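Revision sheet: C-alpha cells.
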Amino acid sequence: MASKTGKILAVDDNTDILFALKLLLRPHVEQIVTETNPSNIPDHMKETDFDVILLDMNFTQDAISGKEGFYWLDKVLETDPQAVVLFITAYGDVEKSVQAIKAGATDFIIKPWQNEKLLATISSAIKLNRSKREASDLKEKQKEINTIMDQPFADFIGVSPGMQQVFKTIQKVAGTDANVLILGENGTGKELVARALHRHSLRQEEPFVSVDLGALSETLFESELFGHVKGAFTDAKTDRPGRFELASGGTIFLDEIGNLSVSMQAKLLTVLERREVTRVGANKPKPIDIRLISATNMPLKQMAAEDGFRQDLIYRINTVEIEIPPLRERPEDIPLLADHFLKIYSRKYNKKINKLSNQVIKKFNTYPWPGNVREFQHVLERAVIMSDSPNLDEGSFHLSSHGSSGEAFDFDNYNLEEIEQKVIEKVMRMHSGNISKAASDLGLTRTSLYRRMEKYGL
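Predicted:
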C-alpha cells in the first residue's frame, strides 16, 4: 500500500498478535484499532466506520471449533451488511475459513503470515469496501431519483382527457412484459412514457437502455445493437456487447423505429422472434431477456401498406399502443406545465419568478407548438434565464417557430410529406441554414434532420 488509506479494526485475544499487526499496519493505514474482547466489537463499529475488520476465528472460551468466530461474524454483518471481514486463522482451520467465506467473510489470513501477502490482502479488502460503499451510495441515489421522478410521472403531467388515457394505459400495462409501441409527434414525451413503463414494471431494478435508431447508420446497426467480437472489422479492437445484451433482464427502448430500413427491420425481427443475439463476427448466439418498448412519429401502418415497413414487425412490437396527444390538443395542461417548468428553472437559475398571467396563458393556447412539450420547456427556460423581473409578460417568450419574417404557411393540399418539406424549408431559412438550431426548433436530432433533407433534396 503506497499511501496511508483505510481504517482497520483487529480483534484477537492474543496481545502479541495485535501488537505485531499494529506495528506492521501503522505505516500503511489511516487508523488501526486493536481489541482483545470481541464483545466490544459493536461499540467500536458505532464509533468508527471501519474499512476492514480482522477477526480471530477462535477465542479463549472455545479455542478449537471456531464457533465464536462465526458468532461474531454474524454480529458484525447484522450491524453492517456491507462490512468487509477477514478471518485470522491457523493452518489447521483453513477448511473452517472456507466455510466462513460462504457465511459472509471476505477472505482469511493464515498465521503465521507473510507481511507482503498480508498487506496485499488488506489493501484489496479496503478497495473492495470502498467499491461496495460507492455502489450502495449510487443505488440509494438512484432510488431517490426514481422516487422524485415517480410523482407520478415527473415532467410527464397533465389533466387533459388524452393524457389521462395515457396514464391509465401505463398503469395497466407497466406490470406486464407486453411489447409497447408509443406513437406521437416529436417532443411529446415518448421517452418519458417508456421510462414510466420501466419504473412501474417488475424490471425496475434492472437496466433501461435507450437507443436512438434514427442516429444509427446501416453499417453500425448490427454492431451497436447486437455487439461484436475482436477482429470482426477494422476498428473492433476488443469484444463489445450490444445494446440488447446490456438491456438483458431489463427494458430496451427503440426510439424512431420507423426510420429503420427494410433490411434492418428483418434483422431486428429475427432477434425478437428468437430472443437471442449473435455478435458480429461470432457464431454462437447469446440468449436475451428483454422487455421491448418502441416509439415513432411515423405512420407505420401506412408505411406497411406501401411496403416501407414490415407488417410482421408491427405485430411483434405493438402488443399495446400508446398514443400521446400533441400539446396543441391539450390546452388545459399548459398552465400545469408552465408552473412545473417555472419552478424547476427558478431553482436552477436562482431566480424568483411569479406565476404566468392569464394573458400569457392565452397567448400560449393560440400557438401551435410544433415542437410540443420539448419546445415549451425550451421557451420557458430561455425566458427565465433572460428575465430581470419576477413577472414574465408576453414579450418575455421567444416563440421562434412563428418566424421573424411574418411568412405564413399556405398549403395547397394536406399531403404530409409536402407539408413536412415546406416546414423544414421555412425553418432552415429562418435560421440561415444552421442545422443545430433548425433541428432544435423542429424537435429532431441533427441526424434525423439531415436524413429528411436528403429525402427532399434540400
